[in-house]
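Record format v2
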Amino acid sequence: MIAGRIDPESGSRGQERAGGFARDPLLDRYLDRLREVLELWDASPSARAEILGEIASHVAEARREGRSLAQVLRGLGPADELAEAYGVALLVDRGRGATGSRRARVLRAAGRWLQSLATSVMLALLLIASFALCALGALGSAAALVLPALPPEVLEPTLRAGAPQGVVLAASLLTLALGVQSFRWLRINVRLARTVRWRRRPPIAAGPRAEDEASGAQSLQSFPAPVRSPSAERPAREGGRT
Amino acid sequence: MRRGLLELCILGLLEHRPSYGYEIVTRLAGVPALAVGEGTIYPLLRRLKSLGRLTTYWQESEAGPPRQYYRLSAAGEEYLSVLRGEWAQLAASVDEIMGSRAEPRGPARATRIGRGIRR
């Protein structure tokens, strides 16, 4: 048995030792493309190496049986589609926290935490601004309506010498409207933040029941459609299929 | 449903002895009823491995690159028995439906076909 024999960073060059057939430019292109799309799926270097090693091994076995390279690759399907199919398995990996090193996982978690913190600060500021604008608008409107009605001796001369009532009232109402609008923006942003948080959750929660629900135990009854990564669809459209 | 069947077949193949990817692929690709492409099996193997139902090890091959061998884990054995139970239920239900439809129509149709041949 040989554990960890395949170089984690290996691409087609690394596969040359694996069978002697990988020098074929067609196979090189296929494996390179497979590796590129797997990278888009955030496959860890070790996962990529395992997958590439297995496909190279498959090709070598098939060619030893006399099949042509074109036939073998046709049997495997386009590299993009193969990588996308692997991508679903990699999502399972990620759900179990198996993708990437510990350091990478810690960094990802720290990034997510910082992002959440920034969002929370931004929402808190927006909340404070909304309250302040509404309060200012309401007070200004009240002052514009009430103050001129008061007898002149009650008011200080400086207050009376201020802007005309109409201007103060308009400015206050505008501030109030801005405050109300800020509350709307706040609501939209809270919804958006919730949606982003929900979408960022691992696709499969930890625990055997969740795993089974996601992809296993009900397998003979029904299956959800495979999850497609938008980032992985991009290269497929750009071409490069072998 | 097809993927569930494939999982059942893969786990069934690995029940008694470990096997490597190409062997599994050729065994399953050789069953026309499954209509499975070679590129379908490898991601499925990876998924079963990710879910802890299979374990792997690499082994040198006499001629060619090293092979990744798959074998059933304890969780895989448990899952296989669950799938077997589901399959038995499903097959029994389908048999029952087909049997109840085929009984009254079967002989009559066979007679018609028989007459056609005789003519």
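Chain B has four helices and three strands.
Residues 106-119 of chain B have pLDDT under 50 and may be disordered.
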